[in-house]
Each structure stands twice: as structure tokens, then as C-alpha cells.
């Protein structure tokens, strides 16, 4: 069956089973491999993408559900929040193995778009759904804080 | 000269010639053409002034790309912006670890094993560039300077300058010196500074490529149905429904189970679910982990193999004023790396090429060669970035490489990606072994420790493996490491081992034996100090009596200082615990502030002091200590793989196997001891001390010592 949706600004029509998780459509049909498989059951957040403006777990999102919607992956994320987050992630040197970090970055970008002036507790709560087995959590918090500050024009 | 400060992606693009994400997700890392200046196996310098370092120790997140590249850049006097790193190919002649004698990464040895070889490689390359410039300019080499990638000679009337790249065409007839002069630490300009982590950009924007991302022409993706219990065997299977699943191309029996080959991962998983398989469970492990724990605990009482014996423990225990005993129980643990096991093989008639997160390249290469019946040189391994390892990607039995090879063998020439699902990974064994420690301590009338007994019951990691030769006098050193040779004055001490048997496959898990021995020794010691009326920090300091006591003392005093240690009560319902543990050559002390919130321990802050010799990159050391203690804390708090009655694993994914989340991670402050000594391990030493530090705080808080991990029952 054919499903049509926009990925990173480009409208695509794909012949895929509507039950197939969006994660595998993104990774294998579209070859956008920045979005990662970690658990398949919406527990780890490595597969986080933005669907119609909301961060969601692509591993439990059937492809059929994004018909006519807009999907943004790490390859296509843009704007001041995205730039601030990725710059902070690099400067703070958040990543160790790096595998979960696409999902962390997508969650952080989505969060800062919604919450421009977050408290430290807001940051922890927003990032709590994304597992990091290297336990880079303290640097994740520091990088989100740095990105939020730079968006606010603070050092 | 050309002023070229490339960013890493630009380097990739120019070096590979082409990056087409859709067709070739490998950005040319595996195959590079035209690196004209190759002074040794580790360094390539291009005419466009890029210095590529072939890193022989796999980048698992611990920072080998940055650390080893820093060593080269330091002696080469390169500009950090021109440096680039990639994993070296599998080649034992060129890339054997100077510690293991084969190519591999483990035991926190990448940095110590590379400290001389990588600096020598950099210094030799520098000498060649200087000599090439000297010949070209007709000046003495001794008058030439190199700084931040610029080779220069200042004459009376002329200033001559060249980049490395400009000198590349002139290096052809220059022979690298065999024994180049290395810098002294006071000459270092990069080592000891936080040079930017080389893989930070690509791991912040989704472009880093892992083996799960590799695609080859015509590749099939494979999932394997394996026995539901450890030691069970395949009897028969019906593949009709699986083969009728859309996208499934074939089904084959392989030694580890039934392999389903499909166009994509989802189809492979669905096809596997549709298999009808009969397993023979005769000979499988059918005990529950609770039953095993009881058997282990019994064995620990009379552990027969003596690993260390000082003084006369029996006599000292008999004459002690008070004898305290304790038992500590540790569960099976899963590594649960975020990227499950996966890899790609491309088989042609008599050779095979692998893309995988190999951590033990020589063994993987030999295993594949044996499976295919070809010489090892016909096996190429492209070591990929890995989504974590923590020990999981180096296996004594090479089971992953073997399975991947068998998949290709069963289906014939072609390209295959093997992917373990999260469930395959978590229920598939290779756990940190279930372990019991039985401890006895004798105190005299003044509260001094006069006798110490530590009996360990655990499964051997080395038995029945190629490493069996390292078992000496019935002792697998990895079972007892961290429990013998303690730095404390314990004149009568015995450590003994009961080696347990089970068909549950076990494996080293970040910090290996130290994951349980540090808890047993540092918690029990803390109890004895309390019982003897001693301060937990000063009491330890007073007992330090080892050759390297000054380094133990250094980290313990430093951590007490930065945490402002005043004893276990920190007020406001917060208690503090301390622990000190040396592992992998490095010394780490920690203090943890802990309270109870909503019936669970809450760790507010952890202070750590570390002495790992010279600090090559303090930022990475801080990250490894924080991450290492986070890994250890996650296990101590929440993690446990259980076998149910009958032998089935009960936890298959992160929903049931709880690992630590962001909100549970404490604030961390790390102090690094200044040192000019050779560097020691840093990937693992941060893990062992956290569980005992928290356990000791919990005893201070509740009056009860946690005797069984994890702290939070689930």
C-alpha cells in the first residue's frame, strides 16, 4: 500500500506495509540512519523524531499513521534551537558512544521550542525519557542549559 | 603555505571523493586511496595537509580516537585542527596491542598500551618531515622548528615555512628513525589540555556511522531464533509460515538456531516470529537464579581454592574479641548497550569482508577464517563505531562473529546484516556472573581488624575459553580481582574461591570482578571500621600499608577535601558513604550523598578523585569517571537479570530491566590528581567504587547494610 508523507521537507510516496514501524521506514526505506533502533518498545528514545511538531517514538509509530504528516529526523532538523542544541552538544562533548544522542538531540530541540526559558527541573523532566547507557546525563543537562542560554542571548 | 583547517566532515568528503548517503552510508572510512606519506602503520599525511591516525584500539565511546590521536599530534607538533582518526584495519602484524600481543581493546588498556608506541610514531613522522625540509632548504635539521603544523627555518635573510602537506612529496627517500627522541612532559602542548573530542561533531548531528547503519548491494537482513533456555538444542522446525511472510527470502538452520533472511529488519523479525520450532531442553539450565543464589551462597562458606593467604587467619579469627560475618549477593547483569549486537558480512568465493563493532579483531578474524576455511588474510574487518560495549563486544568464544559467518556460509556468496533485537540481546546471556561473597572479620578489644576472610563463589569467565591458560592454581583471576592485594594492613587475611558451574554464558562486564569485589570489600571494611569506632576516611587512611599507599592516600584525601567530609551524617536526612578502590592501574575514591525519597535511594551528589597517571585529556577522564560511576550506580540501584523456575530469563527489554535515567543521575564532581607517571586505565575504574560508597551511605542512613544488590527490588 502507498503511504505519502513529508520527510525533512520532501514529500515522499512509499510502497510499505502501514503496520511497519516508521523507524524502519526511515532507516531502511529512506536510508536516513541517524535515527537509531534501541528497544523497539518506546522505552529508550533513540528513535525519537518530530512528527507534526511533536517529538515521538518512531519505533512504535506505524508508518500508516503518518499519512500526510510532516516527519523531521536528525538529518533534517533546522532552526535556531537545532543549531543551538547541536553546537552545545559538540562543545560540551556530551557523546561517548554517541548511539543515543540523535534521540537526545531531537528531544532537546523539541523541548526548547516549547520551553524557551527552562528551569533545571524542566530540563531533567524533559530529558528523562531518553536512556543513555554511557550515563552522559550530567553533560546532557549541561548542554541543554547551554543551548537555552545561548538562545536567550545569555553566555 | 596553505592554511587549511578542515572540519572532519570536509575531510571525509575530500578523502572519500564522494558521499552518497543513500547508496553508500560508509563515508569512505574503510577504503582510502592515495595517502602518500606513510611513515609507519599509524600515520598517513596527505598533500592537502591532513594527518590521519589509524587507531588500533576500538572507539567504544571511551575516547581512543581522541586520546591516541593526541599522542601522535603531540610528538608530531601538529595543529589539532588537521588531525583525523579512524579505526585501524584488522592486522595483527601491524596493530597488535603492546600489552596483549594481539589486536584488541579491553581491560582499560588502550591508553597505557599506546603511550609509547603512538608517541614514537608521531616523533618518527616529525623527524622525517624535518629531514625532508632540511634537504629541500639546504639547512641543518637541528635548526628547523615545528610548531602547530608548521615546519620552519629562520635564516639570517630568509624565513622558510612549509606545511606538512607541502613536504609530503619530498619525504619519499627519507628513512624514519627507529628510535626517535620523545618529549618530556614539560614540553607537552596538547597532552594534558582538553583538545576537542575528535568524534564530538558527528556524534552530535546524527552523521556518525555504526555497523547497524551499513548497507551493501543486495544485502539481506537476518534475525536468528535461538534456544529459549541456556543449553537447549534445536530438534526440528517448520519454516513454511516464515517463508510466506512478505519480505522473507530464505530460512536456514545454523549452529546457533534458525536464521531468517529478509529484505529488511522488520520482515526478518516478523518472519522469525512465524517460525515453528521444537527445542530439546534436556541439559538446559533449568534452575532459577534464586536457586542458583542459594547454591552459590552455600559454596561460598567453604570456598576451596585459596587465592591469597597472609598470616594465620584461623588462629587470628579464633582469638579475636569479636567476629563479624556478612554475606553479599550479586545478580546476573546485562550489558544492555544501546546498540544491540549487529554486523555485516560480504562473502565472495574465498574471502569475506566484515563491518562490525569488533573489539578483538585478531580473534574475530581467526574465527571467521576458521568458519570459512580460508586464511586469516582473506578476512577483512572494518571496525565500526559501536553503540557502547561495556565488555559485550569482546567475547572469549567469538560467538557473534561465528554466527555472522555461519549465516553467510549457509546462504552462500552475498551480503548479510545480522541484527540482534533488544530482546535477543537481553535474554541472550553473556551476563556479569551471579556472585556471592561470604566475609568474616575479626576485631580486637581496641576495634582493630586482626583477621579478614573473603570467600567468593562465582562462575569463571575464562574456563572453557581460549583464555583458560590464564587460570592459575584453580584461580580465575577475574573472579577475585579487587579482593586480594588490598592496600590495607590486614596481617591475617585469606581470599578463597568456589568456581561455580552453569550453562548460562557469562562475560566480563565493565570492571569485571571489581564490580562485586569492590562492594564486598569496601562495604565490609566500612562495617568493621564503624564497629571498631573509627572514622570511615581516617580509619582507611590509617590502614593504608601498600607499596602504592601514597596514591591511595592521595585520592582519598582529595575526595574528603572536595566533599568536605565530616563523617557519615550530612544533615537534612542525607547520609554520606565513602569508598576507595584501585582497578586497571588507577586509583579512585568516591563520596556519595544519599537520602531516601519515595522508598528509593536518591543519590544527590558524588565526589570522585582519580589518579590515572598523567591526564592526557582531562575532559574525557571526567566523562569516563562520571559515566563509569553512572554505569555502576545503575546496576547497584536497579539492575538484575533473573532466571525463573525452569530457566527462562524474565527480562527482555528496558521496560523490565530498569537502567538509570537522567533524573536518577547525581551531580558529579571529579578531581584529577596531577601526575607525570605513565597513564593507566580510565574506561573502567570509575565503576567499582560507587556501589560501596552508596551502600555505606545507606547503612549510615537506615542502620541496615544492603546485603543484596540491586538496592531497589523489582
Automatic annotation (TrEMBL), chain A:
Pfam family, one: Fer2
Domain 2Fe-2S ferredoxin-type intervals: 1-77
Keywords tagged on the record: 2Fe-2S, Iron, Iron-sulfur, Metal-binding, Oxidoreductase
SUPFAM superfamilies registered for this protein in UniProt: 2Fe-2S ferredoxin-like, CO dehydrogenase ISP C-domain like
InterPro entries: 2Fe-2S-bd, 2Fe-2S-bd_dom_sf, 2Fe-2S_ferredoxin-like_sf, 2Fe-2S_ferredoxin-type, 2Fe2S_fd_BS, Beta-grasp_dom_sf, Diverse_Oxidoreductases
Domain of life where this protein originates: Bacteria
PANTHER family: BLR6218 PROTEIN, OXIDOREDUCTASE WITH IRON-SULFUR SUBUNIT
Protein's name according to its UniProt entry: (2Fe-2S)-binding protein
TrEMBL record, chain B:
Family matches, as SUPFAM superfamilies: Molybdenum cofactor-binding domain
Domain of life of the organism encoding this protein: Bacteria
InterPro entries per UniProt: Ald_Oxase/Xan_DH_a/b, AldOxase/xan_DH_MoCoBD1, AldOxase/xan_DH_MoCoBD2, AldOxase/xan_DH_Mopterin-bd_sf, N-heterocyclic_Hydroxylase, OxRdtase_Mopterin-bd_su_IorB, TAT_signal
Pfam families in UniProt: MoCoBD_1, MoCoBD_2
Gene3D superfamilies according to UniProt: Aldehyde oxidase/xanthine dehydrogenase, a/b hammerhead, Aldehyde oxidase/xanthine dehydrogenase, molybdopterin binding domain
SMART domains: Ald_Xan_dh_C
Domain Aldehyde oxidase/xanthine dehydrogenase a/b hammerhead: 205-283
Protein name from the UniProt record: Xanthine dehydrogenase family protein molybdopterin-binding subunit
Amino acid at each position: 500500500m502507498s503511504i505519502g508523507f513529508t520527510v525533512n521537507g520532501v514529500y515522499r510516496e512509499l510502497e510499505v506495509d502501514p503496520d511497519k514501524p516508521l523507524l524502519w521506514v526511515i532507516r531502511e526505506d529512506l536510508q536516513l540512519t541517524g535515527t537509531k533502533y534501541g528497544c523497539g518498545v518506546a522505552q529508550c528514545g533513540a528513535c525519537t523524531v518530530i512528527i507534526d511538531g511533536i517529538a515521538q517514538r518512531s519505533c512504535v509509530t506505524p508508518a500508516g499513521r503518518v499519512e500526510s504528516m510532516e516527519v523531521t529526523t536528525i538529518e533534517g532538523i533546522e532552526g535556531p534551537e537545532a543549531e543551538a542544541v547541536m553546537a552545545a552538544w559538540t562543545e560540551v562533548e556530551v557523546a561517548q558512544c554517541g548511539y543515543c544522542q540523535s534521540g537526545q538531540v531531537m528531544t532537546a530541540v523539541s523541548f526548547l521550542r516549547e520551553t524557551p526559558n527552562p528551569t533545571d527541573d524542566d530540563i531533567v523532566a524533559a530529558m528523562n525519557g531518553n536512556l543513555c547507557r554511557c550515563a552522559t546525563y550530567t553533560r546532557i543537562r549541561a548542554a541543554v542549559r547551554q543551548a537555552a542560554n545561548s538562545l536567550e542571548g545569555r553566555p | 603555505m596553505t592554511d587549511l583547517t578542515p572540519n572532519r566532515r570536509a575531510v571525509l568528503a575530500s578523502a572519500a571523493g564522494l558521499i552518497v548517503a543513500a547508496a553508500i552510508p560508509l563515508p569512505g572510512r574503510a577504503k582510502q586511496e592515495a595517502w602518500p606519506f606513510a611513515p609507519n602503520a599509524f600515520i598517513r599525511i596527505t598533500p592537502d595537509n591532513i594527518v590521519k591516525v589509524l587507531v588500533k584500539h576500538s572507539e567504544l565511546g571511551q575516547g581512543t580516537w581522541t586520546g591516541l590521536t593526541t599522542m601522535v599530534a603531540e610528538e608530531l607538533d601538529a595543529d589539532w585542527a588537521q588531525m583525523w582518526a579512524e579505526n585501524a584495519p584488522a592486522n595483527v602484524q601491524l596493530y597488535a596491542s603492546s600489552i596483549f600481543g594481539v589486536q584488541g581493546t579491553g581491560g582499560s588498556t588502550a591508553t597505557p598500551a599506546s603511550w609509547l608506541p603512538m608517541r614514537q610514531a608521531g616523533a618518527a613522522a616529525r623527524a622525517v618531515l624535518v629531514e625532508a625540509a632540511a634537504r629541500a632548504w639546504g639547512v641543518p635539521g637541528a635548526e628547523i622548528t615545528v610548531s602547530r603544523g608548521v615546519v620552519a627555518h629562520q635564516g639570517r635573510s630568509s624565513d622558510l615555512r612549509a606545511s606538512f602537506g607541502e613536504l609530503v612529496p619530498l619525504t619519499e627517500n627519507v628513512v624514519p628513525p627507529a628510535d626517535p627522541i620523545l618529549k618530556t612532559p614539560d614540553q607537552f602542548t596538547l597532552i594534558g589540555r582538553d583538545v576537542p573530542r575528535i568524534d564530538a561533531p558527528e556524534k552530535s548531528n546524527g552523521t556518525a556511522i555504526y555497523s547497524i547503519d551499513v548497507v551493501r548491494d543486495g544485502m539481506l537482513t537476518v534475525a536468528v531464533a535461538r534456544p529459549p533456555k541456556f543449553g537447549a538444542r534445536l530438534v526440528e522446525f517448520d519454516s513454511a509460515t516464515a517463508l510466506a511472510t512478505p519480505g522473507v527470502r530464505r530460512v536456514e538452520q545454523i549452529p546457533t538456531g534458525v536464521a531468517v533472511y529478509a529484505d529488511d529488519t522488520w520482515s526478518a523479525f516478523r518472519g522469525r516470529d512465524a517460525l515453528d520450532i521444537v527445542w530439546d531442553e534436556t541439559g538446559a539450565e533449568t534452575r532459577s537464579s534464586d536457586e542458583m543464589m542459594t547454591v552459590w551462597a552455600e559454596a561460598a562458606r567453604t570456598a576451596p581454592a585459596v587465592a591469597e593467604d597472609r598470616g594465620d587467619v584461623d588462629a587470628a579469627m579464633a582469638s579475636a574479641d569479636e567476629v563479624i560475618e556478612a554475606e553479599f549477593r550479586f545478580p546476573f547483569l546485562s550489558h544492555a548497550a544501546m546498540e544491540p549486537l549487529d554486523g555485516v558480512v560480504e562473502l565472495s568465493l574465498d574471502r569475506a569482508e566484515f563491518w562490525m563493532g569488533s573489539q578483538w579483531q585478531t580473534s574475530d578474524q581467526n574465527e571467521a577464517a576458521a568458519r570459512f576455511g580460508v586464511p586469516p588474510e582473506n578476512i577483512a574487518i572494518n571496525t565500526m563505531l559501536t553503540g557502547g560495549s561495556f565488555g559485550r563486544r569482546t567475547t572469549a568464544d567469538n560467538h557473534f562473529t561465528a554466527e555472522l559467518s555461519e549465516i553467510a556460509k549457509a546462504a552462500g556468496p552475498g551480503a548479510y546484516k545480522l541484527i540482534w533485537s533488544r530482546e535477543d540481546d537481553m535474554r541472550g546471556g553473556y551476563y556479569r556472573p551471579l556472585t556471592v561473597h561470604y566475609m568474616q572479620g575479626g576485631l580486637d578489644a581496641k576495634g582493630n581488624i586482626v583477621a579478614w576472610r573473603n570467600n567468593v563463589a562465582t562462575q569463571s569467565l575464562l574456563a572453557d575459553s581460549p583464555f583458560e591458560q590464564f587460570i592459575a592454581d584453580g584461580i580465575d583471576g577475574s573472579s577475585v580481582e579487587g579482593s586480594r592485594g588490598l592496600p590495607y594492613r590486614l596481617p591475617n587475611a585469606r581470599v578463597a574461591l568456589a568456581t561455580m558451574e552453569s550453562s548460562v554464558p557469562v562475560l566480563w562486564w565493565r570492571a569485571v570482578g571489581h564490580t562485586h569485589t569492590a562492594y564486598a570489600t569496601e562495604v565490609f571494611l566500612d562495617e568493621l571500621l564503624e564497629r571498631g569506632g573509627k572514622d570511615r576516611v581516617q580509619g582507611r587512611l590509617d590502614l593504608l600499608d601498600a607499596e602504592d599507599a601514597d596514591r591511595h592516600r592521595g585520592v582519598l584525601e582529595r575526595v574528603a577535601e572536595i566533599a568536605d567530609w565530616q563523617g557519615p551524617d550530612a544533615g537534612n536526612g542525607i547520609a554520606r558513604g565513602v569508598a576507595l578502590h584501585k582497578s586497571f592501574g588507577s586509583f579512585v575514591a568516591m563520596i556519595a550523598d544519599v537520602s531516601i525519597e519515595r522508598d528509593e535511594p536518591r543519590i544527590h551528589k558524588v565526589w570522585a578523585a582519580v589518579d590515572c597517571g598523567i591526564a592526557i585529556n582531562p575532559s574525557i577522564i571526567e566523562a569516563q569517571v562520571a559515566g563509569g560511576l553512572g554505569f555502576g550506580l545503575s546496576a547497584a540501584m536497579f539492575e538484575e537479570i533473573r532466571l525463573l523456575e525452569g530457566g527462562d530469563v524474565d527480562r527482555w527489554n528496558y521496560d523490565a530491566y530498569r537502567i538509570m535515567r537522567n533524573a536518577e543521575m547525581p551531580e558529579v564532581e571529579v578531581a584529577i590528581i596531577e601526575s607525570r607517571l605513565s597513564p593507566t586505565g580510565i574506561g573502567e575504574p570509575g565503576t567499582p567504587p560507587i556501589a560501596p560508597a552508596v551502600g555505606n551511605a545507606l547503612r549510615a542512613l537506615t542502620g541496615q547494610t544492603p546485603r543484596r544488590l540491586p538496592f531497589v527490588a523489582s
